[in-house]
Amino acid sequence: QVQLLESGGGIVQPGQSLTVSCAASGFTFNRYAIHWVRQAPGKGLEWVAGISFDGNKMYSVDFAKGRFSIARDNSENTVHLQMNSLRVEDTAIYFCARDRSGSADYFDNWGQGTLVTVSS
Amino acid sequence: SLVLTQPSTVSVAPGKKATITCGGDNIGSTTVQWYQHKPGQAPILLIYWDKDRPSGIPQRFSGSNSGSAATLTIWEVEAGDEADYYCQVWARGSDHPVFGGGTKLAVL
After folding, report:
1. B25-72 tens-digit pLDDT
2. b vs e for B61-90, b when ≥16 Cβ sit within 10 Å of the residue's Cβ?
3. Which residue, among A106, A107, A109, A114, would best test binding to B if mutated, counting the most B CBs under 10 Å from its CB?
């Protein structure tokens, strides 16, 4: 069955960098777009970034532009979210989610998330 | 950008019907998804394209969308339905999805 497993979360200081990863299995990875969605403590879901099936199109929310970058390795069935210049307000659980399509539709499978804590 | 408005909490007795709304400017002109999220778990897709259910989702969950509001209806609510529910759309003319603020369903 479809599985998405996030990793790489941890505790970092403001201004530092961290990369979280999403390992996929159970489906033909290079046919689907993958997204990152986060949930800050006590808050709702917030889309962060997405990447098309072939890696040629990447999108991100305004607060992530210039700080976060998304990339995928279709040979390893993984997607990475590199986060630079982290802020306290980036503290959240980061979920990866499979798009139903190759680019932008809806999220039909999700991982359980990895916790990123930004604190001094 | 498009803002989706959901009630913060909906309370319902077991066996009754729960209705969760998602309001947005002309939301009826786009398609809406609904997700269920329980703490510590992966979110689950409940409804896509306004009213379609993925395999494995009970018929008790139904969706509709028209005008300025989409609706998720949960029939014969069970204790296990207690969770947060989110609506989501891809805003017209935008390259990114938008989530509603979420609704906590409390089963009395």
Report:
1. 889 889 999 999 999 999 999 999 999 999 999 999 999 999 899 999
2. bbbebeeebbbbebeebeeebebbbbbbbb
3. A106
pLDDT in tens, A50-105: 999 999 999 888 888 889 999 999 999 999 999 999 999 999 999 999 999 877 88
Q: Which residue of B has its CA nearest to A61?
A: B96
- Whether residue A110 and residue B43 make contact (CB cut-off 8 A), yes or no, is yes
Nearest Cα residue in chain B from A95? B42
Q: Does B85 touch chain A (CB under 8 A)?
A: no
